[in-house]
Write a structure and sequence with these properties.
Belongs to the aldehyde dehydrogenase family. The protein has 17 helices and 22 strands. It has 521 residues and is α/β, with parallel strands linked by helices. The strands form six sheets. The chain has a seven-stranded mixed beta sheet, with helices on both faces. Strands 9-8-7-10-11-21 form a six-stranded mixed beta sheet, sandwiched between helices. The structure holds nicotinamide-adenine-dinucleotide. Nicotinamide-adenine-dinucleotide (NAD) binds next to helix 8 and helix 9. The site of nicotinamide-adenine-dinucleotide (NAD) has 29 residues, from helix 8 and helix 9.
Length: 521
């Protein structure tokens, strides 16, 4: 770290910081194995969305601190890349055990900073934990290929090698899962890492970093910096950083994709979504209704795989009454309260934006069949929370702003189509391609849907088809930029480059030189 940085080897990421004394703790940087206080005077408040209390303050990491983090990662790389993959895997084995041990603590932090319910927060951690478990098998995942005797006495083999320093830039909605999509795969492949958590809820990423260090990750292998677009631009521009994983909005994602690509970096960029469900008249009613309610309103609609648009083949009328009943029964409250189904949205600005998209929909002709702006203004004990109740707009058409924009709130849109073909056409005309589901008891309809739908993650009677880590997260169209997806085989390919070796072991004595293009003999 640069001279003048207050380094506290024994103070950790989450304990109270010595400065400033009377206000909430400042989140630290992690540089070269030390949790260090940032010298930056600028910081952003991390606000509990249920109470508006300031949970902590995130510094805007200074340029010197950023450079120190990159240089720590660069310094740690030669030794880490040569550490046997079995040793790297063993650290992940310990890491997954520690995540399980601290699951409740992590979930509490996520609920305090992000707002989701404790149970949902546990799911957030668990879906990330699965990626760590997957990384425990890196020796097999990273295996190369070998062809003996490609020509007489010549063998060719390929090796997957780490890239160097890699970076991850995270969104607010999964404070544990998304950092865990990134650095465990990156570092177990032998890279060193710079992580930038979301400035809205960095706590879980800091706790995970502590656990990774406790698991034995050597100093400098994982570093953490904070901030917003300036830190992001530094990541894009720094020639020492070879690859960037990004998850978040299209505005940020496409900016990062272009800026980092101009510097020759590889980027995987998972972005926004508008996930549709097509509901066929023959769909099994109970299961479909539960799926729509859970996937539409779970996590207050702040999941990139939330089902935000239901297209009813044959009209929505016959479904409306029952959906309204189930959505109305959901309990809106602070995430820490037992029995809560959905907590607040992340910020006051997010709430205002969501409410204005609802109003815009109504003004342009949508029929509000359930209005969560009214029912949830008052949540007893949490009067300052950013609550919006489940909201349903029916008769939505594709020219409405509420349809064109990703709402990212507890709002479900109902559309109609006369036939499966027309429903598929609606989905395929949407610019996003993260996920799409069909609810039907007809194998013929399901197969047609799977074949014709233009979305990267397809659910058949499954509302949020997020693949487990041995597959990849395969959003497409405007929901993804890059060509190697997160985790699974593609994730390992993203974090490694191929070296192809051709070796010759034969007695060449007495042969003359040939200048012709060598061909396989
Ligand atoms: P966001 O884009 O505002 O922020 C994501 C990250 O980018 C943050 O670390 C932030 O500091 C940085 N950032 C924000 N604006 C920037 C800018 N103009 N230039 C450079 N960096 C910038 O996203 P968010 O609000 O935190 O997350 C919600 C979005 O993430 C939604 O669109 C959601 O669909 C998407 N998301 C997608 C997936 C997926 O896998 N496809 C998963 C989760 C979330």
């Amino acid at each position: 770290p640069p001279a003048g940085l207050a380094i506290s080897r024994f103070s950790t990421a989450t304990e109270a910081s010595p400065i400033p004394t009377s206000s909430p703790r400042r989140v630290k940087n992690l540089i070269g194995g030390e949790f260090v206080e940032s010298q930056s005077e600028a910081s952003i408040d991390v606000i509990n969305p249920a109470t508006q209390e300031v949970v902590s303050r995130v510094p805007l990491t200074t340029s010197d601190e950023f450079k120190a983090a990159v240089s720590a990662a660069k310094k740690a790389f030669p030794q880490w890349r040569n550490t046997p993959v079995t040793s790297r895997q063993r650290i992940m084995l310990k890491f997954q055990e520690l995540i399980r041990r601290d699951m409740d603590k992590l979930a509490m932090n996520i609920t305090a900073e992000q707002g989701k319910t404790l149970k949902d927060a546990q799911g957030d951690v668990f879906r990330g934990l699965e990626v760590v478990e997957h990384a425990c098998g890196m020796a097999s995942l990273q295996m190369g290929e070998y062809v003996a005797n490609v020509s007489h006495g010549i063998d060719t083999y390929s090796i997957r090698e780490p890239l160097g320093v890699c970076a991850g830039i995270c969104p607010f909605n999964f404070p544990a899962m998304i950092p865990l999509w990134m650095f465990p795969i990156g570092v177990t492949c032998g890279n060193t890492y710079i992580l930038k958590p979301s400035e809205k809820d960095p706590g879980a990423a800091m706790m995970l970093a502590e656990l990774a260090m406790e698991a034995g990750l050597p100093d400098g292998v994982l570093n953490i910096v904070h901030g917003t677009y300036e830190t992001v631009n530094s990541i894009c521009d720094d020639d020492n950083i070879k690859a960037i994983s990004f998850v978040g909005s299209n505005t940020a994602g496409m900016h990062i994709y272009a800026r980092a690509a101009a510097k020759g970096k590889r980027v995987q960029s998972n972005m926004g979504a508008k996930n549709h469900a097509i509901i066929m008249p023959d769909a099994s009613a109970d299961a479909t209704l539960n799926a729509l309610v859970a996937a539409g309103f779970g996590a207050a609609g702040q999941r990139c795989m939330a089902l935000s648009t239901a297209v009813f083949v044959g009209g929505s009328k016959s479904w409306e009454e029952e959906i309204i009943k189930r959505a109305t029964a959901l309990k809106v409250n602070a995430g820490v309260e037992p029995g809560t189904d959905l907590g607040p949205v992340i910020s006051r600005q997010a709430k205002e934006r969501i409410c204005s998209l609802i109003q815009g929909g109504i003004d342009s002709g949508a029929r509000v069949v359930l209005d969560g702006r009214k029912s949830c203004v008052h949540v007893s004990g949490y009067e300052n929370g950013n609550f919006i109740g489940p909201t349903i707009l029916a008769d939505v058409t594709n020219d409405m702003e509420c349809y064109k924009e990703e709402i990212f709130g507890p709002v479900l849109l109902f559309m109609q189509a006369d036939s499966l073909d027309k429903a598929i056409n609606i989905v395929n005309s949407n610019k996003y391609g993260n996920g799409a589901s069909i609810f039907t008891t007809s194998g013929v309809a399901a197969r047609k849907f799977q074949n014709e739908i233009e979305a990267g993650q397809v659910g058949i009677n499954v509302p949020i088809p997020v693949p487990l880590p041995f597959f990849s997260f395969t959003g497409s169209k405007a929901s993804f930029a890059g060509d190697l997806n997160f985790y699974g085989k593609a994730g390992v390919q993203f974090y490694t480059q191929i070296k192809t070796v051709t070796q010759q072991w034969k007695d060449l004595a007495g042969q003359s030189a040939s200048l012709a293009m060598p061909t396989s003999q």
